[in-house]
Amino acid sequence: xxxxxxxxxxxxxxxxxxxxxxxxxxxxxxxxxxxxxxxxxxxxxxxxxxxxxxxxxxxxxxxxxxxxxxxxxxxxxxxxxxxxxxxxxxxxxxxxxxxxxxxxxxxxxxxxxxxxxxxxxxxxxxxxxxxxxxxxxxxxxxxxxxxxxxxxxxxxxxxxxxxxxxxxxxxxxxxxxxxxxxxxxxxxxxxxxxxxxxxxxxx
Length: 203
Description:
Mean pLDDT: 82
Largest sheet: 6 strands, antiparallel
Shape: globular
Distance between the termini: 17 Å
Strand content: 15-25%
Oligomer: single chain
Helix content: 40-55%
Number of strands: 6
């Protein structure tokens, strides 16, 4: 992964300042958050321009049309009821876009813990791993990216993630459609494992 060095540099700053114990990257150590955002805007941004990802988001947006909140809540409840193992989750994991996301995650050598691709409502389009919920629309990963528009990047707090069972931070950004004047069509979230980065620095 080309961004390993950049991520490692950012983490070196993080560890040197004792950031791992801090709850918020953006508030407590904005200089680290800026470095993560820079990486997100370069290599990770290139990842999400894959035509397969863009097609998957366009297709789901078109298929869903105008969803009412009641339907979104119903789908989210169905997903949660499967508790990480069920037909709805397996169907999404088997999609081509999800398979490619898993390949991208593996190419990161453990730095990327998960990738979530979302549509215009914040619903999962493709996932590298099962997520706790199906609808991300009530979270900052969607509200601070898609709802803001093109070029928006959100760096989350350092926290324990129930989906991956790891301490991580999340970097999210808006996904735009290059075939339609870069209109926002969805969002993407990358989970970043700081423990792996720390080990790489010590080697």
